[in-house]
From TrEMBL:
It comes from Rhodococcus wratislaviensis. InterPro entries: AhpD-like, AhpD_core, CMD-like. GO terms for molecular function: peroxiredoxin activity. The keyword Oxidoreductase applies. This is Alkylhydroperoxidase AhpD core. Gene3D superfamilies: AhpD-like. Keywords: Oxidoreductase, Peroxidase. Pfam families: CMD (PF02627). Residues 11-96 form the Carboxymuconolactone decarboxylase-like domain.
Length: 145
């Protein structure tokens, strides 16, 4: 067996993940995390997880919401680029920490640019994005031109 489409094999579990995703979206809105920052976090988590399906989807979403190609081009090395605000840098570092829990060297993200509510909402965003990446990669979602 080369792979199983998780969403089709267990649709009720997939629907539960969709509900969690909607709850996280509401938490992000309540916490005042903007839509471009949400897409940047989704893109960075997907880069770390090697999820081509989610990378393509969220890059397109970010562009549609007004993100620039320059910022998207350097999000994989955000810490070296001056394109990102302190809040964006903190959110990207936090998302990396949530995604790569076993990495001993962690970036300092707790510089006061995120509220406690934003830290929680972004942590949930990274958690749910990790789940989506694993569904897409495990299910071998096609990514063709």
């Amino acid at each position: 067996m080369t792979g199983v489409n998780l969403s089709k094999q267990h649709p009720s579990v997939y629907k539960s993940l969709m509900k969690l995703d909607a709850d996280v979206k509401a938490a992000l809105e309540t916490a005042g995390v903007g839509p471009l920052l949400v897409e940047l976090v989704k893109i960075r988590v997907s880069q770390l997880n090697g999820c081509a399906f989610c990378l393509r989807m969220h890059t397109r979403d970010a562009l549609a919401k007004g993100e620039t190609t320059d910022r998207l081009a350097v999000v994989a090395a955000w810490w070296e680029a001056q394109y990102f605000s302190d809040q964006e840098r903190a959110a990207l570092a936090l998302a990396e920490q949530v995604t790569a829990l076993a990495v001993p060297e962690r970036r300092t993200w707790d510089d006061g640019s995120l509220t406690g509510e934003q830290v929680s909402a972004i942590s949930w965003l990274a958690t749910v994005m990790n789940a989506w990446n694993r569904v897409a990669v495990t299910s071998h979602y096609p990514v063709a031109p």
